[in-house]
Write a structure and sequence with these properties.
The complex is a heterodimer. By secondary structure, chain A is an alpha+beta fold. Chain A is about 50% helix and about 15% strand. The longest helix of chain A has 27 residues. Classes of the chains: A alpha+beta, B alpha/beta. Chain A: It comes from Pseudomonas fragi.
Chain lengths: ~650, ~240
Amino acid sequence: MSKSDAFLQAGKTAVLQNIHGTMQFLQRFPPFNQMENTHLAYLVEQCQLRFYAPGESIIRPTDGPVEHFYIVKQGRVVGERTHAGREEAQTTFEITAGECFPLSALLGERATRTEHRAAEDTFCLQLNKAAFIKLFALSDEFRDFALRGVSSLLDKVNQQVQQKAAQTLGTQYSLNTRLGELAMRHPVTCAPHVALREAVRLMHEQQVGSIVVVDEHKAPLGIFTLRDLRQVVANGIEDFEQAIDLHMTPEPFYLSPDHSAFDAAIAMTERHIAHVCLVKDQRLCGVVSERDLFSLQRVDLVHLARTIRHAPRLDTLINLRGEIGQLVERMLAHGASSTQITHIITQLNDHTVCRVIELVLADKGDPGVPFTWLCFGSEGRREQTLHTDQDNGILFEAKDAAEAADIRLRLLPIAQQINHHLAACGFTLCKGNIMAGNPDLCLSRAEWARRFAAFIREATPENLLASTIYFDLRVVWGDERGCAQLRRGILEQVADNRLFQRMMADNALRHRPPVGRFREFVLERKGSDKATLDLKVQGLTPFVDGARLLALANGVEANNTLERLRQLVALDVIEALDGAAYEEAYHFIQQTRMQQHQLQTRENRPYSNRVDPDSLNQLDRRILREALRQAQRLQSSLALRYQL
Amino acid sequence: MSLLSWLLPRKKPLLSLEQQQRLQQLAPAPPLSEKPLRSQRWVVVDLETSGLNLSRDQVLSMGAVVIEDGAIDLGQAFERTLQRPDNTLSPSILLHGLGPAAIAAGSDPVDALLDFMDFVGDSPVLAFHAPFDQHMLTRSLKDSLGYRLQHPFMDVAALAPMLCPQVHQREAGLDQWINHFHLQVEDRHNASADALATAELALILFSRARAQGIDSPLALQQRLNQWQRRKQMHGF
């Protein structure tokens, strides 16, 4: 070893010793705790440690494309955006020890949009761009983290939740299991000309409930199940030598093997089918039956849906209500996501509503006029939890005001009966009387259209509040066309009315996410709610309101908040990265809220949306804070867009 | 090096030819500059010694980090444990944790000191209680290399109370300042970790100095001299 090499070598040892402490520090935080030691050592070695006094600017929009990646070692950094026409800068986020910035500007090779300032005495590790890029190439964990920003943190929590559930239940299954892993390897098939008798013999031999009829390329032409066999026998057909294709159900529903068990369960519930074909590259590669899903989950969703749909009496429906609660509990324990659960609750609630309407019609007799049962609010957005109010109305067609009044007289008793039955089934009567049994909510299409137009034209506080409920309308039962026309009318009028949009934006800023400049969370200071925050009003509502406004203003017909966000990304109204972050944040808050509800039920406490952040574990708390910051960002973007 | 060499006055240390060449090539030490603080490279030093006796105790290890362009460069750091065959166990081992084995495995003091001076280059030196480090280093360099240390030293322990007068801590040590600024130090009493902590403290102090309109190493030293004189006068 030459002298200079020895010198270099000794220097390296010193550096390694010296950076050890910094590595230890970083290893307390993701993604650094998952990175390989050599990669982490490389990162630290390339870093400069900088100090910033309170108020000092670290990076700002006028600095040009970002040249460094920063990790807060100590202290606190705030992001501030100054909006046009506003003196004061607005704090959009806070970054504390172990957190990094500015990922999107660095990856996008642009200037930051936010001025980053030290809020107190702050040390940051500063990594130059060349080293950042090298690390990005070297370390999968680092790349993952950088690309997904806060999202990968959220993933960690979701994995944690599912692992916990799997541990307690001793099962590695979840509704996210790929169908390909679940289905039989060799589905029982036959050609279309095979005799009925032969096909049934095959089914019997293989002990299966279905046979798929395929062409010479293995593409599914139809499916024949035991239910079809019952039909054949009931129809009195005696010639079992007839070809199977005369009796099969043609064009069977199919999914790809990459769909999840959840997708299959939903399809079976929606379509009232018991078998789903799996097709890849137009070839049949499996069949998933209702029974496969049952044995997987013991969550008899499909069965429950069917029982609801065929409940003979109101009593039966009331009893089934408790089973929905148990189902949700089991699904949450199995690691189903909040989106899956709200989706399922909505489905089951829709089935319950439909069945109640059918039972009332059977009881009271058909009124002789077609009508459509609408729902609003969270039900309209398909975001119901178990604790839900009724928000519904009736839509019908009428030539003129006189005919409308006449029809209304006939429908109101039925509507009131339905409202009462629903209340018996656990749908609490609406305090604001937003129910179909109210004459103001049993309207013809022209009347609804007039009412909605008034909301948009005269933006009073009451009208704004009403629009946040009614404009999430959806059909639960009956003809869908009238409602689609109403929705198109709303979209056209809102798109044309900038003032209404601006008022809605103002309204969407009412509920501020409870994250502050100085503390982690801004909590209630007084009363029984001391030291808690409201997950629904302060966490979810900003997303719901923001997504609704942007959807209505940009012609998006979807009602569901996540669906709205996705379509807004597709329309370039929201940046893809922002959209993904909003979605994850919304999802996480909703998940936390449902876990709280389950916990309350288990402990016999009254149901509440309030949570004490200190009762959450550290990771959850940190992510909740980050999720609420995303709500804050969405609000800031609205403020900017509408110059509020 | 013979056992009691440090006792013998004017005995020229024995250096190999290569060591002599390296000694010749060491950068001279310029006086403190009037350039902005940020453009000055500093070397922040922490020594672990066998005790606190200025004339008898020895330097056991040296740790140093660099402040350059206003930031601590984590890629540049220096740490050497010196071979001291004649070092006897003393109570200070409890403090620095350098056991006999570590010291026996250390580097030849001549090479280590040459490496250190290479690392320092022409930069001024910062240390906590700098007069102590300055004295110990001066003596070691003289004894082992026959080198006269002329680099300016600045005392972080004096800068801190001058620049943060609102902090009422008489004779505050490094630990008190670390606590005051909530600095995270992972491994205290390891020479380079202590140097890093001192450097972090120095970054805070430079920032405070700039806020008070002091923006060059020379201005900082002048202000420090004034402050110390005034303090002495009040002391009487």
